[in-house]
Amino acid sequence: GQSLEQPSEVTAVEGAIVQINCTYQTSGFYGLSWYQQHDGGAPTFLSYNALDGLEETGRFSSFLSRSDSYGYLLLQELQMKDSASYFCATWGGGKLIFGQGTELSVKP
Amino acid sequence: ETGVTQTPRHLVMGMTNKKSLKCEQHLGHNAMYWYKQSAKKPLELMFVYSLEERVENNSVPSRFSPECPNSSHLFLHLHTLQPEDSALYLCASSQEAVRSNYGYTFGSGTRLTVV
């Protein structure tokens, strides 16, 4: 089967750094993506890793280790507006499948 | 706005009603998708349309009926739904068969409540 596992909730304080982990199990692998979804809003694409290593986009970075079937999203200098759900996703069976999402709460 | 527009934003319907959800994109994408999002569950893919042809029907009950009249519009027709069908229904679009770093573009969804 194809599945992605990520923690259901993470809490951090404003200004801190937080890491959201994702492990995956797929037949064939075509990269790991991350999406952000604010409550009541559209999921928005954040990043994509096709190869091992770190991809940086401003305060957000995403990492992939294909040998470990593992990736993470790193959020730095947390702001209150970063409170949202974060989903990892990968391709399986020709379609994009998602993890259950991690709800990030940023406290003052 | 993300470039993918869904209407209505909220819908309450009885189990005997017939209603339709609408999705529109003008991003030049040629693949469109319906996803169902229930609380505390992963997004569940329902249907995939590529170049206006349905290429995926993910074991969805027949009370959900998709329609894709052209590459910019996608509908989800609903009839005789059950209370467990209450969820957020998300539409997305992408460039066909491109597993790329551009991802999917999602609409804001229709919050459906079946009473």
Major sheet size, sense and barrel closure of chain B: 7 strands, mixed
Structural class of chain B: mainly beta
What separation lies between the terminal Cα atoms of chain A? 40 Å
Portion in helices of chain B: under 10%
Strand residue content of chain B: over 45%
SSE topology sketch:
The complex is a heterodimer of chains A (108) and B (115).
Chain A (H helix, E strand, L loop, with lengths): L2 E3 L3 E5 L4 E8 L6 E6 L6 E6 L3 E5 L2 E6 L4 E6 L8 E9 L2 E4 L3 E6 L1
Parallel strand pairs in A: 2-11
Antiparallel strand pairs in A: 1-3, 3-8, 4-5, 4-9, 6-7, 7-8, 9-10, 9-11
Chain B lengths: L3 E4 L2 E4 L4 E8 L5 E7 L6 E7 L2 E5 L6 E7 L2 E7 L7 E8 L10 E2 L3 E5 L1
Parallel strand pairs in B: 2-11
Antiparallel strand pairs in B: 1-3, 3-8, 4-5, 4-9, 5-6, 7-8, 9-10, 9-11
Short description:
The complex is a heterodimer of chains A (108) and B (115). Chain A is 0% helix and 59% strand. Chain A has strands spanning 3-5, 9-13, 18-25, 32-37, 44-49, 53-57, 60-65, 70-75, 84-92, 95-98, 102-107.
Q: Could you explain the architecture of this structure?
A:
The complex is a heterodimer of chains A (108) and B (115). Chain A has no helices and eleven strands. By secondary structure, chain A is mostly beta strands. Chain A is globular, with a radius of gyration of 13 Å. Chain A starts with a strand and ends with a strand. In chain A, 34% of the residues are buried. With 115 residues, chain B is mostly beta strands. Chain B is built from no helices and eleven strands. In chain B, strands 2, 4, 5, 6, 9, 10 and 11 form a seven-stranded mixed sheet that branches. In chain B, strands 1-3-8-7 form a four-stranded antiparallel sheet, with no helix packed on it. The radius of gyration of chain B is 13 Å and the shape is globular. The N and C termini of chain B lie far apart (29 Å). The model of chain B has no long low-confidence stretch (mean pLDDT 89).
